[in-house]
Task: inverse folding
């Protein structure tokens, strides 16, 4: 997520100077805030992550639930103090209010009593939380939403739609894992398309249509924003040349065979979403340094990001005792004797 608050800050500066202390405080505050949201998600998912995220430290035993709960409270207190400090330093009420909204959206997505991630509103809250990030970064430098022809509103709109689709993609990942592990089964005479999507409630065929509509619909905005002079040519080309083909391929593969191509589709759509973020970062860096160095920075970021995901992210490959054991534990946890695992 880091490019989503670095890039808009660079673009809003437009090569000018600013009070770097404020920007530094903002970066610390938003980093801590994002950490709180991610940690809350891992904490609230500690039971189901026996299947969906076996490298979650709360699953592997590296961290106890009690310690995690105390840490989450401390993190929120620190995040609140940083937000208050940011308000005192900047007197930017729009920025702080937007960050409070983002904080609420992030926590309510995962934690009870709301836990919107288990409802049909899950993709909306996921997309809203992501779309607010570039808005935060813009406001720390440029208080006007209409600056540069309303660029930040236009990009946030595009990002919201693409992130909405990716929010559904995440649910497909969980659905396919549950299906392959036997937690859910197709009813007699039915098909995978008739299953309810795990954590989203809608049937797979309906969720597929919605994923395709929002993901591809986001890219229809690019030429419109370019024609209106909101997106420059470099950003428009980057968005259409990299993320769009990957998205089209992934959705076509999912429609053709949602089981056989399911994992590949999730991977391709995830990569497309990352390239959306990197496209913004590359254009922002190119406004300050040579475009060759900008591309090199993005390639380096992608390499480091990939290594971190592989090693430390709950979805990574370093499951302590292997996927098989994680699956067995999940089945033992979710399915009790005499309980049907059919999911119609």
Result:
């Amino acid at each position: 997520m880091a490019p989503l608050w670095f890039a808009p800050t660079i673009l809003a500066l437009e090569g000018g100077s600013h009070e770097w202390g404020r920007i530094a405080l903002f970066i610390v505050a938003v980093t801590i805030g994002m950490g709180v949201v991610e940690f809350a998600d891992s904490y609230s998912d500690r039971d189901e992550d026996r299947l969906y995220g076996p490298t979650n430290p709360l699953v592997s035993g590296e961290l106890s639930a009690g310690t995690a709960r105390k840490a989450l409270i401390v993190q929120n207190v620190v995040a609140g103090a940083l937000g208050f400090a940011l308000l005192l330093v900047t007197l930017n009420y729009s920025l702080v209010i937007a960050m409070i909204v983002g904080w609420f959206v992030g926590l309510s997505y995962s934690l009870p009593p709301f836990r919107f991630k288990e409802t049909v509103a899950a993709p909306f809250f996921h997309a809203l939380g992501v779309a607010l990030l570039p808005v935060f970064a813009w406001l720390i430098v440029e208080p006007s939403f209409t600056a540069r022809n309303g660029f930040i509103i236009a990009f946030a709109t595009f990002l919201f739609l693409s992130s909405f689709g990716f929010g559904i993609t995440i649910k497909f990942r969980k659905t396919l894992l549950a299906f392959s592990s036997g937690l859910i089964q197709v009813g007699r005479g039915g098909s995978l398309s008739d299953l309810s999507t795990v954590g989203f409630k809608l049937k797979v065929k309906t969720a597929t249509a919605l994923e395709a509509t929002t993901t591809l619909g986001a890219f229809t905005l690019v030429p419109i924003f370019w024609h209106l002079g909101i997106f420059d040519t470099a950003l428009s080309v980057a968005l259409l040349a990299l993320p769009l083909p990957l998205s089209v391929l992934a959705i076509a593969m999912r429609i053709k065979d949602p089981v056989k191509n399911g994992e590949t589709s999730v991977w391709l759509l995830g990569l497309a979403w990352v390239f959306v973020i990197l496209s913004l970062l590359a254009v922002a860096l190119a406004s300050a340094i040579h475009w060759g160095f900008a591309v090199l920075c993005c390639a380096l970021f992608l390499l480091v990001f990939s290594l971190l995901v592989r090693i430390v992210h709950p979805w990574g490959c370093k499951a302590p005792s292997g996927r098989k054991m994680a699956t067995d534990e999940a089945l033992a946890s979710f399915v009790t004797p005499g309980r049907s695992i059919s999911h119609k």
User: Anything to note?
Assistant: Residues 3-334 form one domain.
